[in-house]
């Protein structure tokens, strides 16, 4: 790790005369970036043959139309008409020629068809193969959940339908049933309902434990983020108190996740603050070049006369640099480390010389002097300065990229609005 220590005092003023709170005590870390190449997936599309006896022509390379057409056909096949769903609902409720009784803990019986239940759930199929047959009717037991939840579960196996009030009441039971009996379609519905409608600070701890038991990683992650985001209030709930007694390992895991998230938040804030410092340094370099080349306010270049039109400046750091240059030219304290303001402008001049690509024609004072001084620095000092230069340049590039993205997004919005207006006019 390379580190360059610079003075943390105030050194820049903005256009209002206020001092920039820009610390120079920053830790510069060398980060290695590794690039990765994206491998393009070339799909193949086979043209349909004209007749059944002739072989298919060879596939066309690098065409993705085949995959798109296949996905469209699959989506079209998934659109089940209402009449079909009504038919399966009617078959379930009327139990016409049923051959299976599903028993619950409270003694209720749900009449159904073994062929339907066995096709939708491989676990239930295995249970049916071992079930006893009496008078041509099989019987299986689904214990541990209310009979109403089993009723909603069996109905979903028929028609993939449910009533919203039933889902709200038995969603946790249905999640368990879908996991135990391996019904992924119902499991996706339950997870989606929990994520979008039923998750709250009062039940998030219970749902987190259930999501971990039912192998629902996305739901588990959402619950963990919710607990970390509202940790203080959630720790006061009854679910948290029960979890602490029954599952202390999960409590320790959540506390570690909270500490990790807080560390990441502090690291992001530190990097954001460092980027602000690097951006201020870049603005200071631009203001320094502007003052020495064109002149500004009361300071003009050595070989030109200051124009009256230069009284208004667009560089935010120009006034602070101007005051530092005036102090530097009139300061009588010439001992090393004696004057903090002189030390700041000296560092800025040296930083400029390392960023300057034309020292022979540069108007900034001491630019050539610092270029010659670079030849006598140690490798460690040279690496520190090079890292600082790269950080300053990267901060400006990052800011420009974000600005371009925002401009592009606003341009897209304007084009969309304009297109909507043109369409409405044409119609």
UniProtKB/TrEMBL annotation:
Pathway: Protein modification; protein ubiquitination. Keywords: Metal-binding, Ubl conjugation pathway, Zinc, Zinc-finger. GO terms for molecular function: calmodulin binding; zinc ion binding. It comes from the Eukaryota. GO terms for biological process: regulation of DNA-templated transcription; response to hormone; response to hydrogen peroxide; response to salicylic acid. This is BTB domain-containing protein. CDD domains: BACK. The keyword Zinc applies. It comes from Oryza punctata (Red rice). Pfam families: BTB, zf-TAZ. The keyword Metal-binding applies.
